[in-house]
Amino acid sequence: MAQESSIPDSTTNFNTNFHFQLTSVTQYHFAMKAPYTGNNSLSKGDESASTLTATLFWGTKLWKGAGLYINPEVAGGSGISSAKGIAAFTNGEAFRVGDLEPKIYLARGFIK
Predict the structure, then answer these.
(1) Is the dihedral of CA 74, 77, 82, 87 positive or negative?
(2) Are strands 48-63 and 66-77 parallel, antiparallel or unpaired?
(3) 67 and 55 in contact (C-beta within 8 Å)?
(4) Where are the domains of the chain?
(5) Phi–psi pair at 60, nearest 5 degrees
(6) What are phi and psi of 83, to 5 degrees?
(7) Distance (Å, rounded) from C-alpha 13 to C-alpha 17?
């Protein structure tokens, strides 16, 4: 008969949880001739661009009936031609990003 371990199984320890998500989108377009160009068209000099978004979610039990949750995020980059023209809808992450430099911010933080 197998001896039972005194170490608790991590799958039954519900005192804390941790989740992480990272999305990176890189776009590239070849040079092309267009019969029309304007302010919202793809620019000729901007042939590639990338965006990065990441989310961390951490929650832990403080005491019976109470928990602490934090949800920091980071976002940075740009779509091709500042996400104008066709680049606006081919990179679904570009609308979330407000600056080329990645910025860290607290999306949520609360005690329940």
Answers:
(1) negative
(2) antiparallel
(3) no
(4) 17-26+44-111
(5) -145, 150
(6) 60, 35
(7) 9
Q: Residue 41 phi/psi, 5° resolution?
A: -95, 165
Helix (H) or strand (E) holding 103: strand 103-111
Structure tokens at 94: 């570009």
Give the integer Cα–Cα distance in Å for 44 and 74.
Answer: 29
- For the record, the structure tokens of 75 come out as 């976002």
Residue range 32-88, pLDDT digits in tens: 777 877 777 777 766 788 888 899 999 999 988 899 999 999 988 887 776 666 645
Q: At 26, list the tokens.
A: 């890189």
Residues with Cβ within 8 Å of 43's Cβ and at least 6 positions away in sequence, in order, are 81
Q: How many CB atoms lie within 10 A of CB 34?
A: 10
Alpha helices in 1-111 (DSSP H): 87-90
- 59 φ, ψ (degrees, to nearest 5): -135, 145
The model carries a pTM of: 0.66
Q: How far is CA 90 from the centre of its chain?
A: 16
